[in-house]
Amino acid sequence: MTLSRASGCAIAVAVLWTAPIFGADAGSPNAAPAGDAITAGRSTFQQFCAACHGRDGRGNGPIVQFLLRDPADLTHIRARNMGVFPKDTLGSILLAPSRNAAPEGVPTQMMIWGPIFQSMDNDRRRALARVEELLTFLESIQEE
Ligand code: HEC
């Protein structure tokens, strides 16, 4: 079968969308090495997440009193998940295109970041790299 350039490209895009988000094949060319990724992730976290989740991720940010629901303590995600940090699942939650696209069984409160990062960076790969940095940072603050 011969593929035209355009359909080959469409298939590549489809593979990127369906591959494990942070698997080796999906690749994130803009992602920094681990130490830099933690620093970059921490900076994105302080900017977009700390108001609710707190600077250290414990769920004690300054606007908690105005929320209807307590933000999760993000330092115990691994402990709550039987010792495994669920990077791909969290990535698909943070990058989901809308709240309605939540994978079954996951809380839908955190579904708005995909559209925000993608519109901000206007580049899906940079949005992926940003979320990967965020998750590298979150993984680095897991306790127990
Ligand atoms: C407006 C407040 C607010 C902001 C800003 C916010 N969150 Fe949350 N987050 C919440 C609330 C509330 C929950 C609990 C939702 C639930 O349990 O359904 C939550 C839950 C989560 C969870 C699920 C944790 C778990 O163990 O289930 C993750 C991961 C998360 N947030 C990450 C982030 C990241 C990363 C950012 C920044 C990009 C962010 N949040 C910004 C309020 C916020």
List the helices and strands and how they pair.
Elements: H1 5-18, H2 34-48, H3 50-53, H4 77-80, H5 87-95, H6 113-121, H7 124-140
Helix pairs in contact: 2-7, 5-7, 6-7
The protein binds heme C.
Heme C is lined by residues 48-49, 51-53, 67, 69, 71-72, 74, 77, 80, 90, 94, 107, 109-110, 113, 134.
Structure write-up:
With 144 residues, the chain is mainly α. It has a single domain (29-140), classed as Cytochrome Bc1 Complex, Chain D, domain 2. The chain is 50% helix and 0% strand. The chain contains seven helices and no strands. Helix 5 packs across helix 7 and helix 6 crosses helix 7. The longest helix is centred in the C-terminal third of the chain and has 17 residues, at 124-140. The radius of gyration is 16 Å and the shape is globular. It starts with a helix and ends with a helix. The model is unreliable at 1-19 and 23-28 (pLDDT under 50). The structure holds heme C (HEC). Heme C binds at residues 48-49, 51-53, 67, 69, 71-72, 74, 77, 80, 90, 94, 107, 109-110, 113, 134.
Bound molecules: heme C
Strand content: under 5%
Under CATH at level 1, the class stands as Mainly Alpha
Share of helix, binned: 40-55%
Describe the structure using short key phrases:
disordered N terminus, binds heme C, 7 helices, Cytochrome Bc1 Complex, Chain D, domain 2, single chain, 144 residues, mainly alpha
